[in-house]
Specification:
By secondary structure, this protein is α+β, with helices and mostly antiparallel strands. The strands form 5 sheets. It has a 5-stranded mixed β-sheet, with no helix packed on it. The protein has a 5-stranded antiparallel β-sheet with strand order 13-12-15-19-18, with no helix packed on it. It has a 5-stranded mixed β-sheet with strand order 14-21-20-16-17, with no helix packed on it. Strand 18 and strand 19 form a beta hairpin.
């Protein structure tokens, strides 16, 4: 949508460059005078999306979802009774839940009787010192009152004072009476609370004084703060809340009003965020848009073009322009004029001061037969001016949109030539012509040392003049051989002929793998100014190679079985020799034991503690030999080293004691 322009500046801010750049881009998005594209008002697609979210949420038992769904139905003029089933099951144990459930019931007309306990929860919240709790309490009591509950307004005497004390001199509203922290939406919440309390009609002189001094009196600062928010950190929730609060307070005091420029920018921002992702977001957005459409100060209007008409062809209907309010509703008869239509290069103006005709059925629709100006293919900037018949409307200034005139491309003078290289020059061997969209008139054969040249001209189907396409390629492929090659076609600076060369001689091995046969040739032409691309099967060329075709290895075939070659074992001695050698060793050990026992060498075996150390030392040696044996059958190298280290340390000390005991025993025998 295009509203009256408002200048916005990116404030200089401290911080990282990325933050500054982001804020500048955001402010530029808000500034309408920098907006060059085309957007729509809240139209049919947006309405359908919001209703889909509302229908899904209407089956919930969560109070916030039910209220959001009912609010969407109300804003769009739909029946909200589908939320009543969820309302009957929803909890009202907290102030937020009770306020949401009662508000949804009030909107939908559900038969609900607020319980005494729920009312007490709302009274407690309304008289707290937290702004969010006060909001839930007051709005919940208002909804309960509309449902037939008796509300004791005298219990809310001090609420105005509490809210008034939260409003600072700079226009910000704190989250609570005991905190300096604030949210941007708090200003709108405070205004809505104040307007609701006035509606209860129980303010005494002190409360009225607080209302006039701290709320109505500081509204100007609130507006100024929201103007800063527009430039720095805008959000749908903050704008919708402030618009709803300003409207509610205007009913209390006519001095409360918004500036046209400020309202205009808020409306532009809200319509630019019309694709809400959640039911709460959609409800908040529609609340703000409803305030924009029904406010008593000014009525922003929208001049938009149907998105389907941004690309025009000769077969298209007339350009369709709508003049509406932010909800795409009829707002006033008007005269819409095409100020000028300029081609993208800025050098050709094809139309000036042309009045659009009003559609007889749709009061919002104005038509323009753009092809009466015989535009060539390309992009055009169209500038419109609107003059409504009704007063009090905020009309957009001259609105510029970009429209593409799409042409249908065609190909003429197409030839396919086979050439061979002789003495460094290409000599034509054979040629075939083709008439778009039919294939060429005869089959061609190319040898392995030939080249194939494809040439053609592209024409504008509307103007019937030569057309330089942005992209043109030639595709050569064979499904049989699973080969595809793309060749870029180009034009010379002084000619309209588009040419592509298929260098068969250079690509015989690398691309075609010397596989002869029939290859299909396609010409592909595309351009952003065309309604569709051309994919033309121009014909078939048979390739013949003198060298035998190389069979391509199948990458998916199983590989050959790998056979491992093991070294043949060396020759071993006969089993009898091995057994004889082992017997000799065992016999020698037996002789050793017998000789020790018969010669009396055990007399040197130490007695007392020495004998214990000696036995322990031999046991450790036996254990170490056991570890070595296990290494060959069970242990790995790390386990072997680990257990050997454990046994080695005690072997050193115990062996020392054992040797000392033997030495002592030997000395005693020598004496």
């Amino acid at each position: 949508p295009f509203f009256s322009k408002s200048r916005k500046k990116c404030r200089t801010m401290k911080g990282a460059l990325f933050t500054l750049l982001s804020l500048c881009l955001l402010a530029s998005a808000i500034a309408i005078e920098d907006f060059t594209g085309v957007t729509e008002s809240y139209g049919t697609a947006d309405r359908a999306h919001a209703l889909s979210l509302a229908k899904s949420a209407s089956t919930s038992t969560r109070g916030v979802d039910l209220y959001s769904a009912a609010s969407i139905f109300q804003s769009l003029g739909e029946d909200a009774s589908s939320v009543c089933k969820g309302v009957s099951k929803a909890s009202t144990s907290t102030a937020e839940e009770a306020a949401s459930v009662f508000s949804a019931a009030a909107i939908a007309g559900c038969k609900v009787s607020p319980s005494a306990s729920a009312l007490e929860v709302l009274y407690s919240a309304a008289t707290s010192r937290e702004l969010a709790s006060i909001r839930h309490g007051v709005s919940g009591l208002q909804a309960a009152k509309s449902l037939g509950a008796k509300v004791d307004a005298s219990r809310l005497q001090d609420v105005i004072s509490t809210v008034a004390d939260m409003i600072d001199e700079d226009g910000t509203v704190s989250n609570s009476a005991d905190s300096d922290e604030f949210e941007e939406e708090n200003a709108g919440i405070a205004l809505q609370i104040a307007a609701t309390l006035v509606g209860f009609g129980s303010l005494d002189d002190i409360e009225t004084s607080k209302l006039n001094e701290n709320i109505i009196g500081k509204f100007g600062m609130m507006k100024k703060h929201m103007a800063d928010v527009m430039e720095e950190d805008p959000s749908v929730k903050s704008f919708s809340s402030f618009l709803a609060g300003a409207l509610a307070m205007h009913a209390v005091d006519n001095s409360i009003e918004l500036d046209t420029d400020q309202l205009d920018v808020m409306a532009e921002f809200l319509t630019s965020r019309r694709h809400a992702g959640t039911v709460e977001g959609a409800a908040s957005l529609l609340k703000g848009l409803k305030a924009v459409a029904s406010n008593p100060w000014s009525h922003p209007t929208v001049l938009s073009v149907e998105s389907s008409e941004l690309s025009l062809t000769k077969k298209s209907e007339k350009l369709r322009v709508h003049f509406t309010d932010v909800f795409s509703n009829f707002i006033s008869p008007a005269s819409v004029t095409l100020v000028e239509a300029v081609k993208e290069d800025g050098e050709q103006t094809i139309a000036r001061d042309v009045a659009l005709s009003a559609d007889g059925k749709d009061k919002t629709l104005y038509l323009l037969d753009f092809f009466r100006f015989q535009p060539s293919a390309g992009f055009y900037t169209l500038t419109f001016h609107v003059e409504p018949e009704s007063d009090g409307l905020v009309i957009p200034r001259d609105v510029s949109i970009t429209v593409k005139v799409a042409t249908s491309l065609k190909i003429e003078e197409a030839t396919v030539a086979v050439r061979e290289v002789k003495s460094g020059k290409r000599v034509q061997v054979n040629e075939a012509k083709a008439s778009f969209p039919s294939a060429m008139n005869k089959a061609l054969v190319a040898k392995g040392d030939n080249d194939i040249a494809i040439s053609f001209k592209v024409f504008d189907g509307i103007a019937n003049t030569a057309f330089k396409a942005e992209q043109a390629v030639v595709r050569v492929y064979s499904n049989e051989h699973d080969v595809e090659a793309i060749f870029v076609a180009s034009t010379s600076s002084n000619s309209d002929v588009v040419t592509a060369t298929v260098a068969v001689s250079l690509l015989s091995e690398r691309v075609f793998k010397y596989r002869g046969g029939e290859y299909k040739v396609e010409v592909i032409v595309g351009d952003s100014r065309a309604d569709k691309a051309i994919v033309w099967a121009i014909g078939t060329v048979k390739l013949e190679f003198a060298k035998a075709a190389i069979k391509e290895s199948n990458k998916l075939a199983p590989l050959d079985v790998i056979v491992h070659q093991f070294r043949q074992p060396e020759k071993r001695p006969a089993e009898v020799i091995s057994m004889a050698f082992t017997g000799v060793i065992v016999l020698a050990f037996a002789i050793f034991v017998v000789k020790v026992m018969t010669t009396g060498n055990f007399r040197l075996f130490p007695g007392g503690m020495g004998s214990i150390f000696d036995l322990m030392f031999h046991a450790i040696l036996a254990a170490m030999l056991g570890v070595l044996v296990l290494y060959f059958f069970q242990f790995n190298i790390f386990e072997t080293l680990f257990y050997s280290a454990i046994l080695g340390l005690p072997a050193v000390f115990i062996g020392n004691f054992a040797l000392s005991a033997i030495a002592t025993s030997r000395y005693a025998h020598s004496q």
